[in-house]
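BUG-118 | component: ligand-complex export | severity: low

The export step for iron/sulfur cluster jobs runs without errors, but we want the raw record kept on the ticket for reference. Input record follows.
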Amino acid sequence: MRGMPRPSPKLDGDRPDDWRESALCKDEDPELWFPLGHISPSALYQAEQAKSICYACSVRFECLEDVLNSGDSFGIRAGFDEQERLKTHPDTLRRLASETQADDGPNRVVGRLAESCA
Ligand code: SF4
């Protein structure tokens, strides 16, 4: 079993990991953030569930900055999967994260990603 999507610790600042205590994923099954395969219906459903939790997470911005700094390329982080993070400029990811509401469905966010990359 993989660990929860644990962002790597920052090297500066006091209590750099405080934000992790507020992560909505910390008490969930970590496997949810690591769907196997990207095209099977079950993997897509699993990814949608994980992303929906991320959209409602109060530390999403901290999580996004952490994954952008760490270059972690596995799993869903901050509501974006590996491919979305690789293909999208960090500033666009930041903007999309700020525009996403907790009740947005992943398809709406994917649509915004596609518009941003067009
Ligand atoms: S944004 Fe998602 S992956 Fe990041 S801490 Fe919150 S729930 Fe976990």
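Assignee comment: Attached the raw record above. Residues 5, 23-25, 33, 53-54, 57, 59-60, 63, 77-79 surround iron/sulfur cluster (CB under 6 Å).
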